[in-house]
Design a protein that fits this description.
By secondary structure, the protein is α/β, with parallel strands linked by helices. The protein has seven helices and seven strands. The chain has a five-stranded parallel β-sheet with strand order 2-5-1-6-7. A hairpin with a 4-residue loop joins strand 3 and strand 4. Helix 4 (71-82) runs parallel beside helix 5 (126-132) and helix 6 (145-158) packs across helix 7.
């Protein structure tokens, strides 16, 4: 069981990023930290490009890979949060629709801690480095790979894919993303085994 008080003591700053492979439990831990620390949670998934744009770019079948996110918009929002603007409205992601929802999450400048979570916070690419530059710390999460895959398949089934389609998606999209994310783990400020 994670000791949230000990983790809080390790955070030197206000903006914390949680990263890890798809299905590792980033959203779950972010929600726990939000409750325990009175933190505002801003998920990277709100910066998914809309399906209409993904289709235009020929990326709809690979939704979730790094180039299917507005990393520049994400970095710009984090810069505003870091600057403690009185109120920044962040997007969320609606899983039932599988679409981002603009202006859904208020981030007041008075928030003591802001937690953001997403797969690509540590990628060694300029657009993702710009995101990382606004975070005080990034913690990389790990969990047993079999459990992670099981969670992913179940999530895809819950939101409309057949079990076979879910397995195929995990193999074709989520597993390669997981390898990419794990390869960047060495840049984390802390690695947490869940």
């Amino acid at each position: 069981m994670l000791d949230l008080d000990s983790l809080r003591a390790r955070l030197d700053g206000r903006l914390l990023g949680l990263t890890g492979a798809p299905g590792v439990g980033k959203s779950t831990l972010a929600a726990r930290l939000g409750s325990a620390w009175d933190a505002v949670v801003v998920p990277m998934d709100g910066f998914h490009l809309a399906d209409v744009e993904l289709a235009r770019r020929g990326l709809l079948g690979r939704k979730g890979v790094p180039e299917t996110f507005d990393a520049e918009g994400y970095a710009a929002l984090l810069a505003r949060v870091r600057g403690r603007e009185p109120l920044v409205m962040a997007p969320s992601f609606e899983r039932d629709l599988e679409q981002p929802i603009a202006g859904a999450l208020p981030v007041p400048g008075s928030a003591p801690i802001v937690v953001t979570e997403g797969n690509y916070l540590l990628l060694d690419q300029p657009r993702w480095q710009a995101v990382r530059a606004h975070l005080d710390a990034v913690w990389h999460l790990r969990v047993d790979p079999a459990l992670r895959r099981e969670r992913l398949v179940a999530r895809h089934v819950e939101f409309g894919k057949s079990p076979d389609e879910a397995e195929a998606w995990v193999r074709a999209v989520d597993d390669p993303n997981a390898a990419l994310v794990e390869a960047a783990a060495e840049r984390a400020d802390l690695v947490i085994d869940l």
